[in-house]
């Protein structure tokens, strides 16, 4: 007992039958075994239940808290409950503080302490929303006290332009949320830089950028009161409904898992549902982080480190991901649990949404950070269980996964045809097909129609090997580590398909489980985008033109065909140039003809482009930066390298197409003494196909 001073050390939070100590709510009031004293115990494991009875006593069992009459009356004990005034308490029964979550509007993730627990070792950054204490903050005046330990609060680190923890009792930090939803201290705002993986926070001068804007959990939760979930599809112009759907997803992810999801999700429309009667299983999964570390800059979109499983988390289920306690927090945070491969996030600015409709929920996949020990993860959408790895230490670890269902899963070279006929009938909405070079995600309904998965995956591997070869990779230079993911979705952000990671396809247009699709132009084109060297030369010659160098190479290898010949594009482009058209005035096919004219004119053929890719990868960082800063540098870079590859100065061809070169570039090639190639390299009939 001590004179009342309003300190947090004198405050208690009443939660159920527990009295949590406000100064550190991981501890609660408990009887001390073998004595009549009271002390603190672990709130997570304590089963002690207190009550405040009608006689104003604080009671546990048959005993009550008692302040003996002996001076100086600083001691408190447990005595059999009686009517003495020493056992009577006046309690200011206010509701315990509600934890707040601070959600960045750009990343849709929560501010929290990623690892560490004191000002000397805490790393404040961004965490995927999962309602854990590391992400909780308590607003007290101008201070944000950390839910992991309210002795500490948020503070600025001006020297390192970031935020840290400091002692709450001595803090002078004054934070405020301004009208633009920025979390401010003076002229600075907390910023989530757009550099992947977006786990870092910075402290920068306030701007209008969305990555400086934040939602408070309590605000978005209150904004949903009285609203009803929409019926899909709904108009793309309805931004109010879109925002509410984003809020519903965030609230669902942060609500305590002891409570039911407050907002129903339209999973029957997409991604699908699992029968509640389908058996849930427990599995041990080996995660292989032993190969992390791309040891060079490939100057292309390299595959990410995703590890597929044959498991699926049903919508609404709480699964457990159990990591060994021997892992460090930093090692555990290299692992992200991803539920669902359908990662396209639709928004009002998506080209497939503008003037159209949302056919599915804007977000249908979730990522969760995990820590050593037991991690409880609830999926509101359901999805294939995927593990994503980030750079750091290299190691292999076994994790236990509980309360999941088995999904259709085919592994090329491992799963037999007989076994496939059984596993493809598993009750999960989406199936995974995996080979040496790629992972394909398709609706299970499509997988069940597939009788020859070996042939399908062999074709995907075949064309992906051709993509790598066209980009200049061979036995002398191995391609980037990792597998490309190709995913069928009900609705994607742009086009009928788009590149990136994963490469996304609209299932209404493409069935990735169809044996013909690996040999379809769309696959070659979209995966080709991932191999492009955009800011170094590809973009300057037309992103949608240079990408089809990959498509034309594969078409030639597979079918001895040339789409430009079939479309008569060589003739029409040459006629346009004869009529005065410049390169910049040409369409995507015309610009592709420019490059293919050079390819057809010299015996080096495809090797000239392969060498251009290799040379660009071999640039030093300074050389690469020099090229990316100027469009003319990019034009010159390809001109110089193509001229060197074919052994002729291509300056007259560039002149004919009205594609200007710098005097420095022309002089560099002239000094090599190369003969000038004819200006007109047009590829006209009769074509000679080898």
What is the secondary structure topology, with strand pairs?
Blueprint: E1 12-15, E2 18-21, E3 27-31, E4 38-42, E5 51-52, E6 58-60, E7 63-66, E8 77-80, E9 102-104, E10 110-115, E11 123-127, E12 137-140, E13 143-146, E14 152-157, E15 162-167, E16 176-177, E17 183-185, E18 188-191, E19 202-205, E20 214-216, H1 217-223, E21 234-235, H2 239-254, E22 281-288, E23 306-313, E24 318-323, H3 329-332, E25 335-339, E26 357-358, E27 366-369, E28 373-378, E29 383-389, E30 396-406, E31 409-411, H4 417-423, E32 430-434, E33 438-443, H5 444-447, H6 453-470, E34 484-489, E35 497-498, E36 503-506, H7 521-531, H8 534-538, H9 543-546, H10 548-559, H11 563-566, H12 569-578, H13 588-601, H14 607-617, H15 621-628, H16 631-646, H17 651-656, H18 663-670
Parallel strand pairs: 31-32, 33-34, 34-36
Antiparallel strand pairs: 1-2, 3-4, 5-6, 6-7, 7-8, 9-20, 10-11, 12-13, 14-15, 16-17, 17-18, 18-19, 21-26, 22-30, 23-29, 23-30, 24-28, 24-30, 25-27, 25-29, 32-33, 35-36
